[in-house]
Amino acid sequence: MNSSNQPYISQTVNDDEKRFVCKSLFQYNVNQTASLLQKPGIDIELLLKSPKNEVIGGIFCETFLYCLYINELWIEEKYRGLGYGKMLVTEAERVAKENGCTLAHTATFSFQSPEFYRKLGYKEFGVINDYPEGIVEYFLKKKL
């Protein structure tokens, strides 16, 4: 608590306070985009499962402004390079297009999967190469 009547910065944040800030920003963004931010407004969450029903991969995406944003994509190491990642991305893109999306984008680091996305038709539109140890972050997009 601050004893003066001036706003102050706190480094202590609880879950309710964080939710309040995020919800307030989201509502501001919705208002500023005439609700386009909420279009189609679905999450696309797909799992890759083994024959034993174990999770061996998944893709988690959001949609906003008629755009698919790939947040997370992961495949267990022994299943990589076998086409499963492509299957997940392709299915997420299909669901997004079915719901009106016309664009997809993502961000990935140099130690992750920039070449994977390029092979799927994603084009680089931004780079941050100021991370330590030569790590680069790539921003990629694709018209759907």
Our measurement of the CA-to-CA distance between the termini, rounded to an integer number of angstroms, reads 50 Å
Largest sheet: 6 strands, mixed
Average pLDDT confidence is: 95
Q: What is the ordering of alpha helices and beta strands?
A: HEEEHEHEE
* Helicity level: 25-40%
Q: Could you tell me the strand content as a percent range?
A: 25-35%
Number of domains: 2
Strands ordered across the widest β-sheet: 1-2-3-4-6-5
Radius of gyration, whole Å: 19 Å
The SS-based structural class is alpha+beta
Extract low-pLDDT stretches: none
Q: Say what the CATH topology of the largest domain is.
A: Aminopeptidase
| Name of the level-1 CATH class of the largest domain | Alpha Beta
Q: CATH-wise, what's the superfamily of the largest domain?
A: Gcn5-related N-acetyltransferase (GNAT)
**Number of helical stretches of at least 4 residues:** 3
- Globular, elongated, flat, extended or rod-shaped: what is the shape? globular
Question: How many beta-strand segments?
Answer: 6
The CATH architecture category of the largest domain equals: 3-Layer(aba) Sandwich
